[in-house]
């Protein structure tokens, strides 16, 4: 312990004797007979090569065992990703759809026994059924997993020709996919199919009616001028059912009205979004003579016109007069209003006279 060099050698190698000893093989002038390692050679081998198993594959053929399943007309493995196309309504309300995918299942020929019909597994002749091989490398004795049976202790002398001795094959199956209500375009759902996981990505087509913003939906509705001025109701298509929307009086174009709770179901929380309706006033392109006369009569009475009105002139006194009235409709409407005003004035005057106290 007083010799620092020997102490370091002892701590590292477990011995300070590196001299020549009988029966030991030498390499580069050193005798390694006194070498003692605490590292398991098998563990060292595994650290170098990882989890790759050297030896026979499940069919009993030697070599590196990379393939898990046999090749089939459907490919080498199960489907891991699937793209499902949905309409807007299917994504909003939820639906159950089917998908044809590749799945790994028990071989239908051998029933998972891995051998041809009428044959069985035999004890591995290379490791005598122990699953381990022992061999020497100079002074070392190494043990590793049997290269023929991969540690199973059994040897497949007559592997199934359908699954190549794996016991499983890739098969095409149709599975039901429950699509939850409210999924969005590009969203991925993880689904358990047997022992494997299937990742389903949804592609949602656009709607001609609805525009989506998370759980909220937006639609446009056209109303008439009379509805915009006087108010009323209008029927609009909804996600789940048609909705009768109340139009308040004096509604301007591009007004946004909210229908609470009539949107799309929220996927990661409770409740539903809202349905927003954008109002557009539809201006008639053709008018009858009577309709035009009514509008012109209204234009004469309008007081907050920002500019001028085509077909209406302003007198020196500031009154508006319809310039063209071939059928006399505007004059008739004006006469009706004027007479109504005169009658109301007379009634008010008579009422005031009656209520006037006697002198």
TrEMBL record:
Domain CR-type: 94-172
PROSITE patterns: ZF_CR (PS51188)
GO CC annotations, alphabetized: mitochondrion
UniProt keyword terms in alphabetical order: Chaperone, Metal-binding, Repeat, Zinc, Zinc-finger
GO biological process: mitochondrion organization; negative regulation of apoptotic process; protein folding
Gene3D superfamilies from the UniProt entry: Heat shock protein DnaJ, cysteine-rich domain, Urease metallochaperone UreE, N-terminal domain
Pfam families per record: DnaJ_C, DnaJ_CXXCXGXG
Record bears the keyword DNA damage: no
Start and end residues, zinc fingers (CR-type): 94-172
Record keyword Chaperone present: yes
Cleavable signal peptide: none
UniProt xrefs under InterPro entries: Apopto_cytoskel_mod, DnaJ_C, HSP40/DnaJ_pept-bd, HSP_DnaJ_Cys-rich_dom, HSP_DnaJ_Cys-rich_dom_sf
A single MF term (Gene Ontology): zinc ion binding
Stretches with biased composition (Low complexity): 14-29
Region (Disordered) location: 1-33
Name of this protein: Mitochonrial uncharacterized protein
Gene (UniProt): l(2)tid
